[in-house]
Amino acid sequence: MTRDVAVVAFAQSEHSFSDLGWTEADLVMPLVNQVLAATGLRRSEIGFTCSGSNDYLVGTPFSFVAALDTIGAWPPISESHVEQDAAWALYEAWIRLQHGDLDTALVYGFGKGTVGDHAGISSLSYDPYYLAPLMPGDVGMAGLQARALKDAGFAVDPDPTPPPPTDGAAAVILAAGDVARRVCARPAWIRGIDHRIEPHGLGTRDLTRSASARQAAGNAGVGAGPVEFAELHTRFEHEEALLRQELGLPDACVVNASGGPRKADPVMATGLIRIGEAAARIHDGGARRTVAHAASGPCLQHNLVCVLEAEPGAVEPEPSDTASAPEPARPAPHPEPARPAEED
Amino acid sequence: MGNRCAVIGVGQTEYRAKRADVSLAGLVREAALRALEDAGLTFADIDSVVVGKAPDMFEGVVTPELYLADALGAAGKPMLRVHTAGSVGGSTALVGASQVQAGRHDRVLVVAFEKQSESNATWALSTHSPFSASLVVGAGGYFAPYIRAYIRRSGAPGNIGMMVAVKDRINALRNPYAHLKLPDIDLAMVEKSMMLWDPIRYLETCPSSDGAVAMVLGSERAAEAAAAATGRRPAWVHGAAMRSEPMGMAGRDSVDPRAGRDCAADVYRQAGVTEPRRQFAAAEVYVPFSWYEPMWLENLGFADKGAGWKLTESGATAFEGDIPWNPSGGVLSSNPIGASGMIRFAEAAQQVRGQAGEHQVPAAAESAGLALGHAYGGGSQFFAMWAVGVAKP
Amino acid sequence: MSRQATQATQATQAGPGPDPNPDTRARHVLEFPGGYTRSTGPVIGRFLTGLRAGRVLGVRTADGRVLVPPTEYDPLTAAALGGADEDWTEVGPAATVTTWTWVDDPRPDHPLDRPFAWALIRPDGADSALLHAVDAGSKAAMATGMRVHPTWRADRVGSIKDLACFVPGEGPAEVPALAAEREADDPVTMITVPSRLEYRLRPGTVWNRFIDGMAEGRIRGTRCTTCGKVYVPPRAACPADGLPATEWVDLPDTGVLTTFAVNNVPAAGAPEVPFISGYVLLDGADIAMLVLVSDVPWQDVRLGMRVRAVWVPEAERTRSVKNLRWFAPTGEPDVPFDRFEEYV
């Protein structure tokens, strides 16, 4: 029996395409305070905290330790960390809330993409004997999939370009049951969440499919109802066509109304932002059912899918009452990223 | 705590300075297969995989779980990668247990590893930003001042650390997986070893090891099935908790951190433990530098504040004592960093399963047997613990 | 201990904002000296031994597929592979490109120094493809399905880079004799993988202001306006409260040594051994600062010792924490332990 848990608050930084001198920790602290303020929850009321980050982004170990020093983890908190996109931290937190003894969780992720060598860092995440020594990078890997899709008849550009390196962070609060209803006017209920990984090597995979995305979508129940908005972790344009197919998204579904990862890609937060944006469509009354997706690994090796729904049977606002009517569906206001700084 | 959860399989590699015969995948695979065999299962029976290790800079492979998916039979399954500094092995076990306690999965494979011989941990840990000075060399350089403060605060005699160093190495002689085997170890040998980070001597530190450990964690149904199939009983999780606190907080007690005390209190509450020294039959506690035994004896409530060293001095924590600490030889005898925490958790489980072999503490395998597994990390700020028992909670 | 009056000079806002010092970026290199040493295990080792001999080997799965490069475990079933001699077979050298992507600007660590293609390449006789570079001269010369063959380096050591690259055509190319004398039957068991990542890091707004103070021989800290605690080095956020620390204070350069270590382990970038690292609680601060202690024989260093900063002469100062060389005893009476114990 799955316990009802909802995304009740979401905040993200004003992502930047240049290094403004903020530390990873600087990025996180204001967002944690924002989601606490949005829910009215006190720090001490948070039952579990989980974050996602990657040490290689700034090239020193333990970036999550510095972040912990900014979120007011005192008295000591029940806390954990994944060296993955924070979408997986949200998964871990959602699992923890299923135990039934805690009602709230704080999730955050952060990354500085502007200070390092993304092609180099991504290469080091591939098979250390056969792939990493060649330094193919994430763009090289994506290009192999784009070409394979093009050859298979997908209408995609076979020469992918990477999203601009981005600094940024995101934070989410999850709450269960009545607590969610108390702290949020329109909780975005997690109706299904699942993630699956597939083999690492590209040479044994069919790059025109994403078996793990399809599997996660099936287990999360994407097909059980209409999907108005989807936020997909598409760092490359061609991935949208493949994911639309594998997730079974209807043609009418609006993908990445927020601008998506192509407009802001603070790695380790990008996936969590997808969940936050999909939840925000429900928070603002713009949608009743949305889907979020996060990915990692070369050519979508690892996929997470989350289905979010508005309160079932929630009374729709009176159409005549324009003051409280839901906002019409529209892209979320998204801060225009700063222009890249001149190289010095 | 949610649904019941049990350890139904444990697998360890031999811990060595260098496992030159295997790849990274080969190393983790060895532990995983041994855990599966112990549980009477195969990869096909596993619902979910959780991998833990310390900073990726130790091996220079970023998020290695992506590459390890094939070796761990993870294709088509959920896979998580935990990193909570030195406590990561313990946290990884708890993240896996959480999936069972949540009712999400029946059988979860948790694996932790480090292959330190691929580089040099002191190099990785001393990698700092270009704007700060390099004043700390390795973990010993970090923890030595806190040990000095403990000695001053408690008035402990200077030989307590050496006693722990000897005791854990003697225990390691009974453990076939242990890395350091020093049959001639005695106080004089420890005392004569080089002073690395005064007050820490060479033989009062942990070694640098290659190794991996794995456990299969099961639901009540899976535990009963595994016990019936293998004849080996499960270790039931009676209490489990994680606690973290800021590293650089004014007024934080780095010697006796509140996060450690709070974490233990949470585990004890769940497990019904009010007198840890009497109720636990054995404890596997993360002691990478010998002085951390008396420090954690106090932090975990086995001794009053300032009196931990007296327990060590009395022999209570020795293999034959009334509360053996680290009968496996502990981190002082084997230290594949990212795995070291999970080894503590796994060894605690083996004690209550009656599977600890020559270092079995008899009382731990009796019907009321209860054992503690503990890990800590960062600047003594991340804690993960569990209490496991013979009886179903 | 008795709190000396803090020499508080009122302050501007701490916390994130645009970095006022655009010239503060520093290069940070993450490179393990000599490269990572990776033992290969028998399967990868056998493939690399084959490459050194100028042969491409594949491994057979239980259902008869031939995988190149050989993986230690079947990606789908996780079964161990390559345990028996008869599981191994030579493939190619001629091969087919199954997908590809063009690289206009090769990196120094790429296999080729001119524009080339990454491709998945299926050698004849294999059922999977390996990733490598194709030297086709131009993007127009690349096509999915094209036939290629490997060319080989003369200085083969047992590495994926022993394959120089693939080139168009059936081949085969000559395999140059090994430049170095090697035992023909000395199997490859270890590879050395250099990896170098470069970063351009900024110290961050708060650290910048700290360094600015250092340039003037001043030690600056921040005070949390919620709990009143004074932090040095300064913090953008209060670790206990998770709120911005907004007040700057100047601290005296005197304090008490709360604890220390005598370091005898040498390391690149660290002071010459033996050196003493210690925690000094500056007068008026609420947290001890990690510093060097010197100008005193190591045997004479004591907990509770009163110390004062020793600065680089004014004329030689730079914007660096290194302006503060170390702390040395003042000669004042020691402070009793119980007066600073809570700051350990």
TrEMBL record, chain A:
SUPFAM superfamilies in the record: Thiolase-like
Region (Disordered): 311-344
InterPro entries linked: Thiolase-like
Protein name: Thiolase domain-containing protein
Classification lineage: Bacteria, Bacillati, Actinomycetota, Actinomycetes, Catenulisporales
From TrEMBL, chain B:
PANTHER family tied to this protein: ACETYL-COA C-ACETYLTRANSFERASE, NON-SPECIFIC LIPID-TRANSFER PROTEIN-LIKE 2
Transmembrane segments annotated in the record for this chain: none
Residue ranges constituting the Thiolase C-terminal domain according to the UniProt record: 255-378
Name of the protein described by the UniProt record: Thiolase domain-containing protein
Pfam families documented for this protein: Thiolase_C_1 (PF22691)
TrEMBL record, chain C:
ChsH2 C-terminal OB-fold domain ranges (all copies): 88-153, 248-312
Residue ranges, compositional bias (Low complexity): 1-14
Pfam families membership: OB_ChsH2_C, zf-ChsH2
Region described as Disordered: spans on this chain: 1-27
SUPFAM superfamilies from the UniProt entry: Nucleic acid-binding proteins
Domain ChsH2 rubredoxin-like zinc ribbon: 215-240
Protein name stated in the entry: OB-fold nucleic acid binding domain-containing protein
Organism: Catenulispora yoronensis
Organism ancestry: Bacteria, Bacillati, Actinomycetota, Actinomycetes, Catenulisporales
